[in-house]
Specification:
The complex is a heterodimer of chains A (193) and B (296). By secondary structure, chain A is mainly alpha-helical. Chain A is 37% helix and 5% strand. Chain A is extended, with a radius of gyration of 27 Å. Chain B has 296 residues and is of the alpha+beta class. Chain B folds into two domains: 31 residues; 227 residues, Alpha-Beta Plaits. In chain B, the strands form five sheets. Chain B has a four-stranded mixed sheet. Chain B has a two-stranded parallel ribbon with strand order 1-8. A two-stranded antiparallel ribbon of chain B has the order 3-4. In chain B, β5 and β6 form a beta hairpin. The longest helix of chain B is centred in the first third of the chain and has 23 residues. Chains A and B meet through β3 of A and α4, β10 and α9 of B.
Chain lengths: 193, 296
């Protein structure tokens, strides 16, 4: 009889905990969907609001091993004098074509915080938010990019959209869009058998 | 009166006899079912399900692959619109081949739903002097601009009007579709389309099995047969699932934009409200939902 009593308690405890687990599971699910709905009803554009960036963007296209910059720069004494770089980053110097008459490295890169970009105001900026830096001058493009009219867009037309950073298509040091090799032309009508 | 009645019953009887003879002679019953299949638009949900199931089996036999065939109807409250930025398009033709792949277009004989026309800047939009055959090392070429043309998804589609069997129609979300099984291949629609957007399967379509896209829509990219007309459906199999058309996603310059015209917050509405927009052959009153604009 006693055995049976304990058995019963055991069963009921197990059942209750199972129920609780189920309940909490359902609750989680519910809150998830609410979250989703909220996102959907708001302007679709403002999705992926991590603390660092306001848009869900692709990672910046760093060359292999170049980032973090401090790996090398921590051992170097910063030199704020404008000059043409020769012994390092000479490839960038060679291609630099982004208002090169008036600008150089430290107009966008920060002298002290090498792993950050820098706005004209002096505010530091993560590389993931580089679009804000580009937007300082290219306001119209920034405006169109934000609403999804400038630039490539993937994701869902009625839901979550993924953005590319400006620098995913434009080399920040030489931003003119590169020429492309076209795919094969269609077969001429008279050549169709 | 009596005479006519008897003639009618004669015809009835003879056709019944033919059908039963056909059935008895061991003719493939599936082919027979295909032959008797009604216009897709008139079918009930149950009938559609059976047809799609059989089609899946047929494709499996033919290509050795499992197809996921959808017949998803239009999403309520959507009217699809498309915009193409003429100031950005560089004429690289990535869209043409992404479309071919996504939509199982025949490689041989070749069918392209998108045709990219190269036009001289000096002439402006001038179809008579445009070419789709340009083939330089690099694009864009100096002095030229590019106008990709595909189905314009007209609000007033002449192709639908001329179809003698109603095998093509406009769906509630604005996509003009074709029931390939109902199409008789008369090609009236091709003659009626002012954009050259419809294409005919002159031969048995040839798509390499390993390149087949098995995510298909019944009214869209499912494998077609010889003797039917096909065209762009705004990637109905993708867009009704919320995705962008394949050409939008592939475009390396981001010239292609797509969205819901009924949603005031959509990209497409932003373009219509804020950019200079044009439609092709406006004077024909076809009212395309495919807009060209200048993003710069």
């Amino acid at each position: 009889m006693k055995d049976n009593f304990y058995e019963n308690i055991k069963v009921s405890v197990i059942l209750t905990s199972l129920y609780l687990v189920l309940l909490s599971g359902c609750k989680n699910k519910e809150s998830d969907t609410i979250e989703l709905n909220k996102v959907n009803t708001e302007n679709e554009v403002s999705i992926g609001t991590a603390q660092t960036n306001d848009y869900a963007v692709e990672a910046p296209p760093f060359s292999d091993g170049i980032f973090p910059c401090t790996d090398c720069h921590k051992n170097l004494i910063p030199n704020p004098v404008r000059r043409v770089l020769v012994d390092w980053h000479d490839d960038i110097s060679a291609m630099f074509n982004h208002d090169s008459e008036n600008r150089w490295c430290l107009d966008c890169h920060d002298l002290k915080n090498r792993d950050s970009l820098r706005l004209a105001s002096g505010k530091l900026l993560d590389f993931k938010e580089s679009y804000k830096l580009c937007g300082q001058c290219h306001g119209e493009k920034y405006r169109d990019w934000k609403v999804g009219v400038h630039g490539q867009r993937t994701g869902e037309w009625n839901g979550k959209k993924e953005y590319l950073l400006c620098v995913n298509c434009h080399n920040p040091h030489s931003p003119k869009f590169r020429e492309l090799t076209p795919e094969a032309p269609p077969i001429m009508q008279e050549d169709i058998k | 009166m009596k005479n006519e009645n008897s003639r009618r019953s004669f015809i009835k009887n003879i056709s019944l006899a033919t059908f039963s003879a056909l059935a008895l002679s061991g003719c493939n019953t599936k082919a027979f079912d295909d032959f008797l299949q009604q216009n897709f638009k008139t079918l009930s949900k149950k009938e559609k399900d059976i047809i799609i199931k059989n089609l899946g089996i047929k494709y499996k036999e033919k290509y050795g692959k499992e197809f996921h065939i959808s017949d998803k109807p239009a999403i309520d409250g959507t009217l699809f619109g498309y915009a193409l930025d003429l100031s950005r398009c560089v004429g690289c033709r990535r869209c043409v081949y992404a479309c071919v792949k996504e939509n199982n277009q025949s490689r041989e004989p070749q069918i392209h739903w998108i045709e990219v026309l190269q036009m001289e800047k000096e002439r402006g939009i001038d179809f008579a002097h445009s070419t789709a055959q340009y083939n330089p090392e690099k694009v864009p070429e100096k002095g030229y601009f590019y106008v990709p043309v595909q189905c314009q998804q007209c609000k007033n589609p002449p192709c639908v009007k001329v179809c003698p069997v109603k095998a093509t129609w406009q769906e509630p979300d604005g996509i003009t579709v074709i029931d390939y099984n109902w199409c008789i291949g008369c090609r009236y629609c091709m003659a009626a389309c002012p954009y050259g957007a419809r294409h005919f399967n002159w031969g048995e379509p040839d798509v390499p099995v390993e390149e087949l896209n098995t995510e298909v829509h019944y009214l869209g990219n499912r494998p077609r047969m010889k003797g039917v007309v096909e065209k762009c459906t705004f990637c109905i199999q993708r867009t009704r699932e919320g995705k962008y058309p394949a050409c939008v996603e592939i475009c390396p310059v981001g010239a292609r934009k797509f969205g819901n015209l009924l949603d005031p917050d959509s990209e497409i509405r932003y373009i219509l409200e804020n950019k200079r927009v044009l439609i092709l052959k406006q004077e024909l009153n076809t009212q395309p939902k495919f807009y060209y604009f200048f993003g710069i």
